[in-house]
Every structure is written in C-alpha cells, then in structure tokens.
Write a sequence for this structure.
C-alpha cells in the first residue's frame, strides 16, 4: 500500500487554506509555536474521546503507536472487520484515495457498521460536518457498508446526579445524509489538495479572513511578516471583510485611509494607531470611576477551570470551577490560594473572597464575566448561605474589561479581545511580561505537586499586581 498523502487534519487544513496545507507538509519548520490554549484544547479532546468509548464497551483498540504503523493498522482494521466476532473497533484506520483517517468508534450493526466520531464540544460546527463527510468518503471508498454515521458531542443540558451517565452526557446525531450530500465537494477538495502538495512552491494566496477562521493559522508569523506593526488591520471598529479589501487595494497604513470613509469612533482608533497610543473616552471614564473610592479596593486575579465532564452532583458540562486566586490590597498584604476541585474548594473560594470584602468595599477583577457565569451555574448546587455571599460579591465587583469597553478603549496592540498580558504591556511597557494565562492554568491543573503549585502561584500574584497597576493607572487624576 502506498503511503497516504492526506490525513483528516491536513484535509481540514487545506479546506481553510491551501497555502497552509503546502507549508505544513513541505516547510513545517516555518510554523509558529503552538499556543498553550491550543495544547489544552487538544488534550481535552483526547480525554473526552476515551470516555465516549465506554458507550460501546469491549471494543478492540486499533490505534497506531507511531506513524510507521499506519499501513499495518489499515490491514489489521480490514481483517478485524472481516472477522464476524468483531463487534466494536476504536480508532479503526482506513485509507482510500491516498487519504488516511482514524475513526473514533465503529460498531457492527445488523447489515453493516455504524460509525461514530466524537467531539468534545457542546454543539456541531461547519468544520465537524466537513470532517464527517471526509471520513464517510474514505470509509465507503474502503468498502465499508455504513448503516449510519453519527457525530457524538457533549449534551449541554446534562446535569450530573450520582454516577456519570454516559448515555445522557453524550448526544449522538446522525449526519449521514449531510455527509452523503457533500461527497462531490470532498472529492474535488482531495484532488485540489493533492495538486497543491505535488507543487514545487506554495500557492500564491493573500492573507485574509481565512488566517483566523475557523482556526488561527500557525503560519501567520511567516505570511504576515510584511504587514506593518501599525496598519489598517489593527482597527477593531471595522469588519474584517472591509479591512482586508482596503489592505489588498494598497490602503495599508492609517495615513492612506480617507477619513470620509470612517465614523467618529473609527477616526479615534485611527489616531491611536498613528500615535502608537491608546484611545479612551475620558468623560465616560471619569463618570464611571467616580463611583469607586480608591482606598476601598481589593484586587483579585481569579483563575477558573472548565472541565468538560461534570465533577459532582448538580454540575453541568464545562461548569466553571475556581482554580486559584490572588488577592492584593493596600501596599503589602496579599494572599494567593489554590482550590481543590469539588464542593469544599468552591466554598473555600467564596469565603476567601467574601472575607476580603468585609474589609474592603469593592473587588476589582480583570474580567467580571467568568465570575457571573460561575454564580449562575452555582445557583443549582450551592447552599443558601454561599449563594447569598456570592450575590453580594458580584454586586461589589468591578471588571476592568467592562470598564474599558464602556469607555471605548482601544490600543492597536490589544485588538478586540483584550487580555491582561497585552493590556499590561501597553500600560507598563518596562515591566516584565506576564506569563500566558493558559500555560499557567495547565500547570496548575496538570501538577498536584505542592511545590510546583507554589511556583505557579507566584505568577497568579504577578497577574494580581498587574490588575492593580492597570486600575491605578486609569484611576490616576492626571490621565
Ligand atoms: S497565514 Fe493565512 S495565508 Fe498564510 S498560510 Fe495561514 S491561512 Fe494561509
């Protein structure tokens, strides 16, 4: 059997951008480093896939231990399918038309096989349908008689009581008709992708919306290197289609843009790009900050984790759990704490924040939204006393991002999704850069070792002090 040319992931990459496909195969060393957030997503997908296998117990695992085993596993899968005693296969490997796929679960049905592909998300996306259509193409092309093809994903309405009920935790949705409808398109995409890979240079493709959708491309470092640091692409008050259209017409720098194209807010953003500075509506800021007395504040960095699988009674999938907090007030006093997953950890988290508020009047966090979501979800499981404390906490919490958005804050380096690290770099450029938040969370979740947790908690404290520095900056009288 000849070596495959495409896999499921490279096919999906090619659907997003043919240049990305070419570079991935022929110039992988030019790829950007994978972010901690992407690594965490990848690990989560693997864990959920293994759990879903228990829906169909007793299967044979066909997973190749290394790429050198792909051809062997294709043959073993074919033999297993011919064996009438085989009822369930996990990670069955198929190759057809130079495309290799691994299917999460294959179950013998009356007159054929039912294929299941598992997703760790709460809903189905366009990419998942494309993914299913490719698998359907390869399986049917390999001669597998499919009675159905389903995508299995997590049921957002599931609430855990007692032992985890996998039948209720997962939703199975037949997508065979949709996969069948897309077969011509899949065949055409495979031809296109194979031609791209046979080429001697990467296809000429301009940067565009596809660089970020559906996934951030890991060749942006290469393709975007000619984009000036200050360009019209930095504007957040304009849709992507318009910005890229301008960019490709040669309107690249803010100075090339006619002001008559823009509204007042867009003009303010343009000014900030030219000055390499930020814009904020000071009138709105003064009005909002007057509601807070600087002496009554306690600053908090709160890290939540979002496990896909509900942890205990009353919990739902992806429910937020406190992972760690850092608190700072006055000049010196500060505490950091990590919380064990479960009810006791949640109660300790609420009490720690509540106690801080008995001394101070307002809690300042970077983003209030996760705390609001946590409180909503906690309504189903908390004790009346804890819920009262949490409501009181929320009433007295101020979110920095909410405050800045209400004042139309813009800085070209922050973009539309402001993070603590980018904002701190803008406000305190001479200070040490903050650690990536997703890295920090993975470290805290992955390692129960107390010494290493203490090490990671130092970074939680650094974030807390950064929140304090940013709020103090925007609260200063001379801003
Ligand atoms: S950065 Fe954009 S243009 Fe370049 S390979 Fe990725 S998606 Fe394609």
């Amino acid at each position: 059997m000849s070596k495959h040319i495409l896999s499921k992931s490279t096919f999906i990459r090619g659907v997003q951008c043919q240049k990305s496909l070419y570079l991935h195969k022929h110039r992988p060393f030019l790829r950007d480093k994978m972010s901690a957030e992407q690594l965490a997503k990848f690990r989560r997908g693997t864990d959920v896939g293994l759990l879903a296998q228990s829906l169909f117990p007793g299967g044979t695992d066909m997973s190749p231990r290394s790429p050198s085993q792909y051809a062997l596993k294709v043959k073993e899968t074919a033999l297993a399918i011919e064996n009438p005693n085989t009822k369930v296969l996990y990670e069955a490997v198929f190759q057809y038309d130079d495309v290799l796929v691994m299917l999460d679960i294959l179950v013998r049905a009356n007159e054929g096989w039912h294929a299941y592909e598992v997703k760790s998300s709460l809903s189905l996306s366009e990419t998942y349908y494309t993914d299913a259509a490719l698998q359907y193409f390869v399986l049917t092309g390999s001669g597998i008689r499919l009675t159905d093809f389903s995508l299995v994903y997590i049921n957002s309405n599931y609430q855990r009581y007692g032992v985890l009920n996998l039948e209720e935790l997962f939703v199975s949705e037949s997508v065979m008709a949709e996969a069948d409808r897309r077969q011509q398109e899949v065949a055409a995409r495979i031809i296109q992708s194979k031609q791209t890979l046979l080429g001697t240079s990467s296809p000429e493709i301009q940067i565009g919306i596809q660089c970020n959708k559906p996934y951030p491309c890991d060749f942006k470092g290469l393709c975007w290197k000619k984009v000036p640091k200050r360009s019209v692409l930095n504007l957040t008050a304009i849709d992507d289609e318009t910005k890229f259209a301008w960019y490709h017409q040669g309107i690249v720098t803010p100075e090339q843009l006619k002001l008559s194209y823009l509204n007042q807010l867009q003009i303010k953003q343009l000014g900030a790009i030219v000055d390499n500075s930020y814009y904020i509506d000071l009138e709105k800021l003064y009005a909002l900050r007057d509601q807070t007395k600087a002496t009554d504040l306690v600053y908090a960095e709160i890290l939540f984790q979002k496990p896909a699988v509900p942890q205990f009674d009353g919990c739902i999938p992806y429910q937020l759990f406190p992972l760690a907090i850092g608190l700072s007030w006055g000049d010196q006093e500060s505490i950091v704490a990590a919380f064990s997953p479960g009810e006791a950890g949640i109660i300790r988290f609420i009490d720690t924040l509540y106690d801080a508020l008995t001394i101070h009047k307002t809690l300042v966090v970077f983003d209030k939204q996760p705390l609001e979501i946590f409180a909503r979800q906690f309504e189903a499981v908390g004790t009346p006393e804890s819920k009262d404390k949490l409501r009181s906490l929320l009433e007295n919490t101020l979110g920095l991002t909410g405050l800045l958005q209400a004042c139309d804050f813009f800085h070209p380096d922050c973009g539309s999704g402001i993070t603590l690290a980018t904002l701190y770099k803008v406000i305190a450029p001479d200070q040490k850069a903050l650690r990536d938040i997703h890295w920090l969370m993975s470290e805290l979740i992955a390692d129960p070792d107390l010494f290493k947790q203490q090490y990671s908690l130092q970074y939680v404290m650094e974030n807390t002090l950064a929140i304090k520095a940013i709020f103090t900056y925007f609260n200063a009288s001379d801003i």
